[in-house]
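Changelog note: in this version the structure field was regenerated for every chain. One regenerated record is shown below for reference.
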Amino acid sequence: MSKMDNLRAMREARYEAAAARAKGTPATRPALAPPVAPLRVVSDDETTPEPVADDELCGHRNMSGRTCTRERGHSAKSHRYS
């Protein structure tokens, strides 16, 4: 067999193996993740943030080791590193 024939045979074998995995029975398929617990209801009293002291920072660290300078529990999606 030539090199191209070998490649074609390997490609067809991979295709057949993938098709066989896709047709798998439900018992052979991986189990789905368990359902997530429902979210709890937040009352109006719990939505107001507590006052934060100036020295309490978020403290989130990025990959280079810098820490976030925003206040702890900030609602912003991004962090400010210094």
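Spot check on this record: The helical segments are 3-22, 44-47. The mean pLDDT is 76.
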